[in-house]
Amino acid sequence: MKILSLLLLSFISSSVFAVSIYTYIPIKAKTYLPLLYEQQEKIFPEHPLPPYFAALIEQESCIHLKHRRCWDPTSELKTKREQGVGLGQITRTWRKDGSKRFDTLEELRRKHIDQLRELTWGNIKKRPDLQIRAIILLYKDNWYKLPHQVKDPVDRLAMVDMAYNAGIGRVFKDRRVCGLKKNCDPNRYWDNMEKVCTASTKILYGNMSACDIMKHHVRQTLLRRLFKYVDKY
Fold this sequence. Notes:
This protein has about 230 residues and is α+β, with helices and mostly antiparallel strands. It has a single domain (about 1-225), classed as Lysozyme (Orthogonal Bundle), CATH 1.10.530.
């Protein structure tokens, strides 16, 4: 499989770092992997690399691999302006005046009411099945929003991972800027769009800016966390 071979080369070349992230599967993953794979087969069977979703959940929910909230549906990041909940850190944010900036859960419910009707902010921590369904639906939406010109599945996988973290609008902005630059192909992520960022460079968390976090998310998920889940599918 082309996508697996290409990503495996990146995995091997970077495996000299932090060995544990490449081999250790969090304990709670065993509880939710069967449900994850069942939902993926129902919702997005055409995905070229299904174990990706396990790596995404690990990236979103695990502060570190042995943290008690790693792969836990009650995992939560909450500040005055932002709340992310669950295996996929479904997020809502507020402006300084307290008004809602965006609400990913409500947007997903409106678009997929038949599949997510029962999911609310009140019960989200108790419904890992619906959390997983929401993760896959959000990812699938973004996958098909990308233009057909993004033909290589490795590049598409990276762009959609970036969209999961930063929004599909940010992907489109970075693609436009890349297209205006010399020797930058907006239909390729690696070594092309990867080098462009229209997000803020102001330091936010852990000496990382929004740009840093966005690019870090793609590399962590695809190049460091993914391969240990391949034979678990």
